[in-house]
Amino acid sequence: MSAHQVTPNESKYAASARNFRNNVARDLNNAELRENFHGAMHYLRDKRSAAFPQQDELETLREQCKLIKQRCLAKLPYLLEQLEENLTSNGIKVHWAESTSQANDIIATLIEEKSGSQVVKGKSMVSEETALNDFLEQRNIECLESDMGEYIVQLAKEHPSHIIMPAIHQNKKQVADLFKQNISDFSYTTDVDELINVGRNILRDKFCQADVGVTGVNFAVAETGTLCLVENEGNGQMCTTVPPLHIAITGIEKVVEMLDDVPPLLSLLTRSATGQIMSTYFNMISHPRQIGEKDGAQEVHLVLLDNGRSQAFADEELRQTLQCIRCGACMNHCPVYTRIGGHAYGTVYPGPIGQIVSPHMLGLEPTKDLPTASSLCGACGEVCPVKIPIPKLLLRLRQESVKKQDGNSQVMKGEGVGRSNIEAMVWKAWAGVHRHSSIYNFSMWWLTRLRKLMPSKLGVWTSVRTAPKPAAKTLHERVKKHQSSGAK
């Protein structure tokens, strides 16, 4: 576990995150995009609310799952070793990757060793971190997304705008237009069921032809050496059973201690994400295909990725970031995400969770604007199924962004990037004025007398607000006048 390095595969996300303000202006002016998100977010919030009719049950389950995740994180180094040991004894080969480039190299090597040329991929946000599709394409390896939303996003040459519903930013007409442009024999329709069937028919052939299946992992059970995958479309099951080689990739924080830890986490995940009591499919993979079994990959590999996670793990407060089970509930309830969408953030993980995860993966230099893109209303923290204090962590990252460098070891790459010496001097002077009543009263007296000289533009503050205008008299003066008039 060492300091995180930004790799070439991450550069496109880092560059896009730096353009956050421009991205926001672009997407706020996209009326169709805002309408799409407005309807989708209301639908998802209502679904989640209906899935938890009893508030007491929800709070009990949230507390239970928070404690499960915190216990597992406290034992993370030991559990990772136990996971590797049990997976290996089960016949699953484990690979460790500190960076995204290492993960991509491992996966490409495994594919090339089997002379693979066609890959079908189940939904995996970690593979989005590594930009795996682009990497394999450069090596002339076809990598096709098999999740319907991911397939749509891939056709559009975009990245997911939501971690659960990748194509939530597109409506059915936009999808139909996309299919018309990219699928030669597509008979134009905006019927959702027919659109899904078009994608299903294309993917069915690809499953049969693929040399390799790549998936993510929702939970990795150290006790039994089991990889758990949650899905609704059956594509994950196809990716793990039809191709002869299955490669799973996940972050190191996905490990849980015992099989008994999974049911409560799964219950919270599905209900928080899509409002389902249970997902359509829940896959448990503990070994490659055994003698006498009729399906399953002949060879299974797991790539465990760090990519800044050990940096978060090293700090007791920031470690809470790793409790995330990737349900997306914080996005669905965030007033900022609802209005600007996921692509404005420019990072793999958008919304509130992305604002606290991305700085660890990319550093604070390209992501310094993300922690400030929050109203701190607290909705994200209130709905988080594992009780991550997202608003508190956003404030912590804001502090890290402007902290004064003192030569001590860094908490994260790029800390202090947002610090302005002029701003620091202004706040120091402000603190000095407010510490001494005589100086404060004197300053306020002059401020009220010179109120007409207050500029109408005060930098970023007045880009979305009107400039403050001091009153004609200070509060103390008004109170004294009121008291004197009352005495008479």
Describe this protein's structure.
This protein folds into 2 domains: 8-311, Rossmann fold, CATH 3.40.50; 421-487, no CATH class. The chain is globular and about 95 Å long. The strands form 2 sheets. The chain has a 6-stranded parallel sheet, with helices on both faces. The chain has a 4-stranded mixed sheet with strand order 8-5-6-9, sandwiched between helices. The longest helix is centred in the first third of the chain and has 21 residues, at 31-51. α3 (31-51) crosses α13 (262-274) and α17 (351-362) packs parallel to α20. It contains 23 helices and 10 strands. The protein is an alpha/beta fold and 488 residues long. Helices cover 50% and strands 10% of the residues.
Largest sheet features: 6 strands, parallel
- Classify the fold: give the CATH topology of the largest domain: Rossmann fold
Structural classification: alpha/beta
Mean pLDDT: 91
CATH architecture of the largest domain: 3-Layer(aba) Sandwich
Q: Poorly predicted ranges (pLDDT <50, ≥5 residues)? A: 1-10
Query: How many individual domains?
Result: 2
Which CATH class of the largest domain? Alpha Beta
From the N-terminal CA to the C-terminal CA, the straight-line distance is: 75 Å
Write the layout of secondary structure elements.
Layout lengths: L10 H8 L1 H9 L2 H21 L3 H20 L1 H15 L2 E5 L2 H14 L4 E4 L3 H5 L2 H7 L3 E4 L2 H8 L16 H11 L9 H18 L2 E4 L3 E3 L4 E6 L3 H7 L3 E7 L3 E2 L5 H13 L6 E5 L13 E7 L3 H5 L15 H4 L2 H6 L10 H12 L1 H4 L11 H5 L6 H13 L18 H15 L1 H13 L25 H13 L1
Parallel strand pairs: 1-10, 2-3, 2-4, 4-7, 5-8, 7-10
Antiparallel strand pairs: 5-6, 6-9
Helix pairs in contact: 3-13, 17-20
